[in-house]
Amino acid sequence: MEKGPHVVAETELGQISITSGALAEIVGHTAAECYGVVGQAPSGRWRRLLRREGLTRGIDVHAGEDGLVVDLHVVVEYGLNLAEVAATVRTRVAYELERQTGLRVAAVEVHVDDVRGSA
User: Fold this and answer.
1) Is residue 19 within 8 Å of 6, Cβ to Cβ?
2) Residues 43-81 pLDDT 10s
3) Are the C-beta atoms of 59 and 28 separated by less than 8 Å?
4) Which run of H or of E encompasses 17?
5) Cβ(68)–Cβ(62) under 8 Å?
6) Between 82-101 and 20-33, two packed helices, what is the crossing angle to 10 degrees?
7) CA–CA separation, 14 vs 28, rounded Å?
8) How far is 76 from 116, CA to CA, in rounded Å?
9) For a Cys-Cys bond, which of 75, 77, 96, 117 suits 30, CB 3.0-4.6 Å?
């Protein structure tokens, strides 16, 4: 696998090239469907709750030595077990990325940046 803005993998039939943005979209849609996740938080100085638009903010996907490495920042609903929500997100994101791309996922790091009550 190559590093960079595209993830490139060699197969017996040829080469597969997927942009990091496309991979981030898969991660964003999967995380948004997870129970307890109420939004994604962009990493960095300007944090705000994101709902439908901007599903890729706060997500970094790149190729590592052993496969894809995902860094994901989320906002979790108040009152839920943060460790359980993060574990569910980690498992679902890894499963969906491997299922949809055929690429190995080495790590999914879930950062809970905020907790929000239901309004």
Assistant:
1) yes
2) 654 444 444 346 788 899 988 889 999 999 999 999 999
3) yes
4) strand 14-19
5) yes
6) 140
7) 28
8) 6
9) 96
The neighbour count for residue 37, using CB atoms within 10 Å, is 23
**96, 30 Cβ separation under 8 angstroms:** yes
- State the residue for tokens 């009550």: 117
CATH number at residue 58: 3.30.70.1350
Task: Report residue 81 as tokens.
Answer: 């077990």
Q: What is the pTM of this model?
A: 0.82
Q: Which tokens hold the place of 18?
A: 């997927």
- Token look-up 């962009």 returns 42
Distance separating alpha carbons of residues 96 and 78, to the nearest angstrom: 26
Domain presence at residue 1: no
Dist. CA 94–CA 13, nearest whole Å: 24
